[in-house]
Write a structure and sequence with these properties.
Largest sheet: 2 strands, antiparallel
Number of strands: 2
Helix content: 55-70%
Shape: globular
Length: 178
């Protein structure tokens, strides 16, 4: 995050270190901590611990984790695309989830290190970084098209087909027209 005032601009880098994880674990509370991956939560919020705490209000993060797990499953095992659950009616949220996964994948690929999501590490290791950037552009475009009369289910299906084969592509296909 960057804070800008009249006198100065202060950049606060994302925090993924052990101290941040410990602080977040302490502030989440004992009840929620049992079924929660703090590393995954930090990656979802791009290293912003206060945003991570706000994401936990309600059951939105539980749905997000479910979508994220399915998206990672289909990237590693493309045939899993036939077994998706809870995507219907949540197409834009799923696209946002995929967008976050791709951004995290680009970050990991650029920094050349591994994150907390084992499946994402597998994808990042095998994928062409240019394909990640192109898919991210297509996901951005799909999210913006969702505000129009486009068939969002069909658009999500097209994006997911490319995502499910992202590690095996020789040439990147056209999903949306620019």
């Amino acid at each position: 995050a960057t804070i800008v005032s009249r006198c100065q601009s202060v950049h606060i880098p994302p925090a993924y270190d052990q101290e941040t994880k410990a602080w977040l674990t302490q502030h989440i509370g004992k009840a929620q901590n049992t079924d929660l991956d703090v590393v995954q939560l930090l990656e979802h919020t791009h290293g912003v611990p206060f945003k991570a705490l706000s994401e936990l209000s309600g059951d939105g993060f539980i749905h997000y984790q479910h979508w994220q797990n399915q998206l990672l499953d289909i990237a590693v095992h493309p045939l899993m695309i036939n077994q998706l659950e809870d995507f219907e009616g949540n197409e834009v949220e799923v696209l946002n989830c995929l967008q976050n996964l791709i951004i995290e994948g680009i970050r990991l690929k650029t920094l050349n290190h591994e994150g907390g999501l084992i499946e994402l590490n597998k994808v990042v290791k095998e994928v062409n970084s240019d394909f990640l950037f192109r898919l991210l552009d297509d996901v951005y475009h799909a999210i913006s098209l969702s505000k129009t009369t486009v068939n969002i289910k069909l658009l999500l299906d097209n994006v997911l087909i490319v995502w499910s084969h992202i590690t095996h592509l020789k040439r990147y296909p056209q999903i949306t027209s620019t």
